[in-house]
Amino acid sequence: MIPATETIYPSFKVLLVDDEPAWLRSLSLTLERTAGINNVLACDDSTQVMDILSREQVGLVLLDLTMPGISGEQLLDAITEQYPHIQVIIISGMNQLETAVRCIKQGAFDYFVKTDAQEHMTKGVLRAIRTQELYTVNSGMRKRILTGELQNPEAFAHIVTVSPCMLAVFKYIESVAPSTQPVLVTGESGSGKELVAQAIHTLSERKGPLVSVNVAGLDDTSFADTLFGHTRGAFTGAGTTRPGMIEQARGGSLFLDEIGDLSLQSQVKLLRVLQENEFYPLGSDRPKLMQARVIVATHQDLQQKVQDGTFRKDLYYRLCTHHVDVPPLRKRPKDIPALLDRFLEEAAEEFGKKKPAIPKELPLHLANYSFPGNIRELRGMVYDAVSTHKAKVLSMHSFLRAMERENTPAPDAQTVAGSSRPFAALEHLPTITECTAMLIEEAVERADGNQTLAARMLGISQPALSKRLKQLRS
After folding, report:
1. Given CB 3.0 to 4.6 Å as the disulfide criterion, which of 39, 180, 239, 355 pairs with 348?
2. Residue 117 pLDDT
3. For residues 108 and 88, what is the distance between their CA atoms, to the nearest angstrom?
4. How far is Cα 231 from Cα 448, in angstroms, rounded to an integer?
5. How far apart are CA 28 and CA 15, in angstroms?
6. Residue 27: in which H helix or E strand, if any?
């Protein structure tokens, strides 16, 4: 019986089938001590296997070949036929190549001999568990795509959004959250990567805590001490034993922010932890089992860093088993009114003021701003405005000042504006009059009919715009 406070791994049951109870006990202990695999069922009667599979959530079966009653090969046939989603590993007392090949052809995931090294066998079991987890993730994604609904919307309550692109992100998170594999969260600074990490941890239903570490600026020694901890006397000043963040996150999730800033030496250390599923505290020669799910985040382009040689390719592919890309605020303008309302409420409460009303033009102005600082920038704008607010309606002055100060066009706009020949793709050039008309119509469309805002975009006065509109429409 697994204690309620202990992390259950994997999420599905692993069924061990062998007619030797002593071997079952030995294998169970080996899997738990070397890999943390404790969600195990043991069966020493092959005739009961199919009944167990019908009532238990089994994802992996370790199956002995030679047993009285029903043989391992017969069970393999039955399992692959009735439960094709369940992985099966054959563990035989004899090293027979023909039998191994036959079992693999019948659908077995792998084949081991009981005399194989425990480490070799354990790694094979972990591979099968990871494969089964990926199958579960893919099945979950297909189901969510078909239904179009979230199963756990409450897990995203702290993320304010009404955008379809964020709903797609949430569906993906729901699918990958139960997995034990690392998750890479990418997105621009201020886009909400930390909130996404929190949602992943919540949906994983892991009983341990979410432990966050910003690795930017940590040198190799500091990184190792922060993650792995140290023993007493490991170095000068180490007067007591201190557990590292990995140990503090036992049974939970370890969130490593700004992973793109990690040095190459530290990348090697992190890669080894992910590969071996164990770590060594500084000053210790005894490994400890890694029992935390790793979530990493960065605003940098890791693929480009791999090409530049500043980020290890093998670590990158380890980390991006599951990849969540958080859209920037400029790609989800429909979220701005809801975010504005949330931040106004929070700021008013913090400053002890009544929540102010907003000018109707403000959401339009904000929707046409590129927000290089994303949600964090919008929050700062709101708090600054509320701090000096005195009238019934919130002043737009501080917002406009901030937008003019940070008037950086969006990357897509930069690409167009930075081109020396923006009309090169056109076969026939429009006339000056046609260009002016198209530009004005686009500005009015973006401003949702607000001429003051449209005029500001075009760099002309509102009366001048009004005059041009009358000319175009006459």
Report:
1. 355
2. 81
3. 5
4. 64
5. 10
6. helix 21-35
Are 164 and 303 part of one and the same domain?
Answer: yes
**Shared-domain flag, residues 433 and 397:** no
CA atoms within 13 A on the CB side of 474: 6
- Quote the number of domains for the chain: 4
What is the helix (H) or strand (E) element at residue 436, kind and residue range?
helix 432-446
Is residue 245 in a domain?
A: yes
Q: Which of 5-9, 160-164, 326-330, 467-471 has the least mean pLDDT? A: 5-9
Of the candidates 291, 325, 359, which is a domain's last residue?
Answer: 325
Q: Find residue 324's DSSP bridge partners.
A: 185
The C-alpha atoms of residue 363 and residue 396 are separated, in whole angstroms, by: 10
pLDDT at 447: 77
Q: What is the pLDDT, as a whole number, of residue 20?
A: 93
Q: What is the Cβ-side half-sphere exposure of residue 444, based on CA atoms within 13 angstroms?
A: 14
CA distances from 36 to 12, 25, 116, 343, 346 (A): 14, 15, 20, 43, 43
- Using DSSP, state whether 36 is helix, strand or coil: coil
* Residue 147 forms part of a structural domain: no
Q: Does residue 433 share a domain with residue 387?
A: no
Distance CA 110, CA 93 (A): 15
Say which CATH number the domain at 457 has.
Answer: 1.10.10
Give 355: exposed, middle or buried? Use CB within 10 Å, 0-12, 13-18, 19+. middle
The pLDDT value recorded for residue 433 is 82
Q: How much is the average pLDDT of 320-345? A: 94
Is residue 58 domain-shared with residue 96, that is, in the same domain? yes
Q: Which two tokens stand for residue 109?
A: 């995931």
pLDDT, tens digit, 9 for 90 and up, residues 361-372: 898 889 888 899
Burial class (CB in 10 A: 0-12, 13-18, 19+), 373: buried
Is the confidence at residue 413, as pLDDT, over 70?
no
**Rounded CA separation 372/414 (Å):** 12
Note the pLDDT tens digit of each residue in 164-209. 999 999 999 998 998 889 999 999 999 999 999 999 999 998 889 9
DSSP 95-106: --HHHHHHHHHH
Which residues span the domain enclosing 388? 328-418
Backbone angles phi, psi at 105, to 5 degrees: -65, -30
Q: Around Cβ 436, how many Cβ atoms within 10 Å?
A: 15
| Average pLDDT of the residues of the chain | 88
Residue with tokens 């303008």: 333
141's tokens: 């994604």
